[in-house]
Please model this.
Amino acid sequence: MPLLQTRPIRDLHSLLEPLVALSALSANVRADFAAVFDHEGDSYRVPRIVFTGPAAAHEPDPIRLGLFGGLHGDEPASVLALIAFLERLADEPARATGYELVVYPLCNPVGYARDTRHNGAGLDLNRQFWRGSEQPEVVALERELSFNRFHGLITLHADDTAEGIYGYTHGHVLNEALLEPALRSASYIIPRDRRANIDGFLARHGKIESCYQGVLAAPSGQRPRPFDLIFETPARDPLERQVEAAVTALDTILDEYRVFLAYAQNL
Ligand SMILES: [Zn+2]
Model:
């Protein structure tokens, strides 16, 4: 397996090389693109990697999760964490038993290449969802969200004002039940941001219930609602530690949601 990249690589080709290699090496991985678009004479692609874990016993239908990183181009930890997560799953597919993971590690390729939060049009993609945006990244991701009807969404970000890890629960009990153990396990790598106010929102033990309008989310008509978590690492921390913390959080959420579903079926 290729080594974990510990520095941002603004060359998109070499960034995505490990994923191309993975799809050649692992029968569990299928890699293609959710979008291909031109910007100022260059072609950009939003990669989509499907990781199919082994089927769970007595459960023929996989749990489908959407994982998103790099919505803000200047948050490389979110991109590298999803790539590292996929590389480790390829080594140990059993960790994804019962899941089909559809991973979009680089939602804002122009921003990533230029190290900017915004996309090529100067817009914050994470304020554009379900508002009639014509940005190619948003159109493609909305189509993916509508088509896949994910059971759960996990979005990774990095915040340069954060003093530790934290996340958004959107005020839903299941989100809180999944985020809490994820923060707990990841806090062995980076402690929680325990301030009462984070990113302008009221926070409790690193959990925020409110959120901005227009963030990446499931279509409003989707029922039942998927779980939907945003996990943030402190961008000023070393990149390797942010990646470790985010991968640990993802592993924990997979485990906890599996337990939740098994418990729910026995109620
Ligand atoms: Zn962000």
Observations:
- Residues 201 and 267 are 35 Å apart (CA to CA).
- The radius of gyration is 17 Å.
